[in-house]
């Protein structure tokens, strides 16, 4: 099987971008080791701290975050980075050409119960001038690379250089090998993922949509749908990339000031780029996610992504 390094050597991407990707992936290998050991390494449980969003942090959240920060700051090609766990951006190397944004450990609520979690990453070209918050606030369409590492039954790496989506599996020698040379999302699906416990808070079009799916072949959609929910965006998106489906984390009525739950810069943008590169679609029910102009590092957003037919249908219901 082709190794990750062999694959990267064949790509026409700039050497500085390849180096940046390799550093991210190396950091994720270290995170994978900590995840695998769990209680044996004393890394499970609450950290007793909260992040900038006021969410309780797990010990592994902090370990994963610091692992990536330390690795990326040593790479001369990285000018700065931003993390879901940091209040503001972190400077790296002044002459670096790239910015890296990441969610160090997506699905933290699953850590202690041994369910799939992952790291999501996004790479942007650094604009001219001194590094500031605005340097990072680029549309998702401006990403030069994005991907995730899924820590599950196997450790999987999935990424895009904007020429399709590829997947690698970590072997017992600690090397990623190409196992999914082409990931493509079918246009139609009969599988959806949503946290149904929030149903009473959804906007009316989402209520209608899920009601139609639950009605199955006797309803207006004329076919039966299956529901899945892992509570880890990495796991949800990976399932969609492998076999299709639609994932929804809609805006709800509990906090009118929040446009959604997921973070545009650390979750929605990189995952939307992957999904679109695999032939799917992604929007916030009103506009395409990759076309949104960010207003802040920790901006939240509603997300619907996956098989085109379903994503576009949900958007149509909101008109």
Automatic annotation (TrEMBL):
Catalytic activity: beta-D-fructose 1,6-bisphosphate + H2O = beta-D-fructose 6-phosphate + phosphate
Record's GO cellular component terms: cytosol
Entry's Gene Ontology BP terms: fructose 1,6-bisphosphate metabolic process; fructose 6-phosphate metabolic process; fructose metabolic process; gluconeogenesis; sucrose biosynthetic process
Keywords noted in UniProt: Carbohydrate metabolism, Cytoplasm, Hydrolase, Magnesium, Metal-binding
Domain Fructose-1-6-bisphosphatase class 1 C-terminal stretches: 185-318
HAMAP family, A to Z: FBPase_class1
The protein's name: Fructose-1,6-bisphosphatase class 1
Organism name: Kingella negevensis
Gene: fbp_1
């Amino acid at each position: 099987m082709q190794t990750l390094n062999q694959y990267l050597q064949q790509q026409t991407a700039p050497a500085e971008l390849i180096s940046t990707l390799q550093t991210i992936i190396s950091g994720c290998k270290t995170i994978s080791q900590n995840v695998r050991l769990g209680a044996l390494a004393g890394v499970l449980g609450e950290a007793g701290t909260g992040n900038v969003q006021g969410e309780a942090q797990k010990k592994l959240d902090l370990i994963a975050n610091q692992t990536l920060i330390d690795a990326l700051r040593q790479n001369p090609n990285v000018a700065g980075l931003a993390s879901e766990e940091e209040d503001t951006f972190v400077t790296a190397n002044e002459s670096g050409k790239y910015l890296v944004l990441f969610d160090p450990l997506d699905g933290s609520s699953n850590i202690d119960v041994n369910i799939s979690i992952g790291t999501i990453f996004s790479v942007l070209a650094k604009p001219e001038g001194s590094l500031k918050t605005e340097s990072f606030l680029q549309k998702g369409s401006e990403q030069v690379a994005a991907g995730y590492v899924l820590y599950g039954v196997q450790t999987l790496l999935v990424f895009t250089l904007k020429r399709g989506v590829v997947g690698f599996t970590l072997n017992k020698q600690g090397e990623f090998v190409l196992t999914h040379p082409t990931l493509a999302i079918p246009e139609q699906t009969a599988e959806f993922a949503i946290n149904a416990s929030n149903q009473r808070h959804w906007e009316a079009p989402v209520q209608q949509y899920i009601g139609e799916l639950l009605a199955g072949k006797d309803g207006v959609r004329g076919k039966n749908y299956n529901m899945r929910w892992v509570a880890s965006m990495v796991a949800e998106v990976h399932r969609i990339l492998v076999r299709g489906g639609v994932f929804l984390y809609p805006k709800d009525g509990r906090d009118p000031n929040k446009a959604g739950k997921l973070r545009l810069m650390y979750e929605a943008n990189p995952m939307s780029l992957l999904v679109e590169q695999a032939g799917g679609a992604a929007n916030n029910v009103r506009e395409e996610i990759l076309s949104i102009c960010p207003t802040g590092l920790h901006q939240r957003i509603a997300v619907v992504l996956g098989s085109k037919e379903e994503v576009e249908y949900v958007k149509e219901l909101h008109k």
